[in-house]
Amino acid sequence: MRKALITTALLFGGAFCFQPAAFGHGGTSRGPGDTVPPGGGGGGGGGGTPATPGSGAPASPSPASPGSPAPATPGSPAGGPGAANTPTTGGVETGPDLTVWSFWWEFNKDPYINLKAAIHSGGTKTGSSDWFLGQGTDSQAKDSMRPSQSDIDNKIVPALLAALEKETNNDIITGAMMALAKIGDKPDEDGRSAFADKFTEFLGDSNQEIAETSAIALGILANDASVKTLQDLLADTSTGRKLVGSNEVSIRTRSFAAYGLALVGSRTASPETRVAIIQSLREALESDDTATRDIKVACLIAMGLVPLEKLGTEADAAAVEEGDVTMLDTRMAQIDYLTEYFQGKDHYLVRAHCPTAIARLLSETTGDEAFDAKKEEVARIFLKTLKGKERNQVIQSCVLALGQLGDADPDGIDADIRKGLINVPKDVTDTQSRNFSVIALAQVASRVSDGDPTDAIKEASKHFQTQLSKGKNAIRPWAGVAIGVFGRSLGEAAPVDVVEALRAQLIDERTPRIGAYAIGSGILGNPDFTETLLDKLDRIKEDEPRGYICVSLGMIGASEAIVPINEIVKNSTYRPQLLQQASIALGLLGDKNVVDDLIDTLGKSKSLATQAALSAALGYIGDKRSIDPLVEMLGNSALTTRARGFAAVALGIVADKEELPWNSKIALDLNYRASTATLNDTGGTGILNIL
């Protein structure tokens, strides 16, 4: 299905609008329709964009985007986001204002919401007052909503396999493949996976959407036996070409194969498999001569998701610098390779993904003396970049990476990192870098290590309050979210003054910007905010902030919000974004009474955006009691293919083997502003958009 469960709500000059949805690859989940800057990523050459879906395709246009022209939507701005140090190739950016806080939230929300953990911990009834997130009673814990293995093996999997066998519509096929990949299977004695064999059959499908979905499904399945197939696709070998039934493997499929290798590598227990994956990614990165940057970006992101088990030494890194490919088999060599690449001459949108990859690899090596020294080395490179003449996207990535590298230690490189981040709002002209900096500082200053964190906490708290009350209008909502991140990590150690500053802002705010302060409050998780949030829910009329207020109440565990949020769900059939957000809130609050209503509405709905929102809601809160009606929907040929495809999507979410969405690994702390078509694009066909 052409992805795009629901594109995130945007604020345009105070007016609320959201983009028309596009659908595919089993639905969409997160983020804007497109974050590809002009000239930034190009299309999926060597195979083109995914084929137009079958029956039931939307009549509405795809979202307008900075990267590619599209019909305008009501409320869309004429100009692009914030200031830039230098113009991007292709002219002035136009389309959605990507500097708004809600884009960051949509890409990074999963660990904060962690909805599966809430759903599977047990249920509650409407009006119950004793259920709070993570604090259910023993009796509730026994009433687990997790589907049983018997339900998965005997109901869900047979229905999805039957759909793959007999259906021809790409919405249903891609939805079923993605669902089976999330569920997973047990390899046989030879290590082969029946699901993997089934997915491989679709690699040569004439529909590009189906072909590339099968590649990423192999990665989500995370079977080591699929590595060779993904390597052949990425390298465009003769075997890979035979698999796709063409004289070349398309750029889109090759890029999806790189992400697939990352997903396998992030879960495998085999050190040898990880080394083999890293070697393949490096070879593809260095040999890529395609017209777009999709493959290179995919390979760099993937490298950061596959940490090598053997840590290694500087001597290993020196061998890599001399060009010995076979020596790229230690973590130290991996980090040094990426650092050298970052300082090289490749396109800025490619190099912009090195800092995140490096930070991810270093984050698991705390306490090792050699890697502590390496952390300081790369952090100083990133700090120097903040003051240089680099492109905005590179600076943004350095800011985000510094947020992963630093902590609250009182001196040394950690103090320099905090100082650098505090200075970003006045030293850097790029709006997005300034906005990212408060989130990064919140992460650093709340990461308590060996030293006394008192000074770090105080200076960060003061900075957040200054930005919240006196900062530029663009950064104030980000400061509200940052306070939530900061306070959540610190827990009871969070300074009272910064918590009260957020509460005061929440009380006083009258514009749709209140959504940011509501989400900050939800991340913080302080039940003392409940009364204020309920009052705002009653007073605020715009869908976007109301939706975020609902989610906030769910994150706090405010069971008294169940009744009013249920009313919102019942009255939001034609307001899909609000419907989805309110349903997420009810899932967090443990209310399962809406499942029957959502299923009934999905079966009757003709609106693509509503179908998308309903399917996600059922996946989120639809626990094991939604299995039978969803299986029935999937097999009901009287329904639209879209509705049936979304039923497959929901089944995959309900029975997912992982608590967090599979692409959270890729999305977290990633610079979504340095995008390509296969990472995140206009029709929702990038890897970050897929449910």
Q: Could you describe the largest sheet, including whether it forms a barrel?
A: 2 strands, antiparallel
Helix amount, in percent? Answer: 55-70%
Treating each run of at least 4 consecutive H or I residues as one helix, how many helices? Answer: 34
Task: Give unreliable regions as ranges.
Answer: 1-22, 31-92, 123-143
Count the strands?
Answer: 2
Structural class: mainly alpha
Percent in strands: under 5%
Large-scale geometry: globular
Distance between the termini: 10 Å
Strand order of the largest sheet: 1-2
Overall average residue pLDDT? 83
Radius of gyration: 24 Å
Assembly type = single chain
Overview of the structural elements:
- This protein is mostly helical and 691 residues long.
- It contains 34 helices and 2 strands.
- A two-stranded antiparallel ribbon has the order 1-2.
- A hairpin with a 2-residue loop joins β1 and β2.
- α8 packs parallel to α11.
- It is globular and about 65 Å long.
- It starts with 9 loop residues before the first strand and ends in a 24-residue tail after the last helix.
Please supply descriptive tags for the structure shown above.
691 residues, mainly alpha, two-stranded antiparallel ribbon, 34 helices
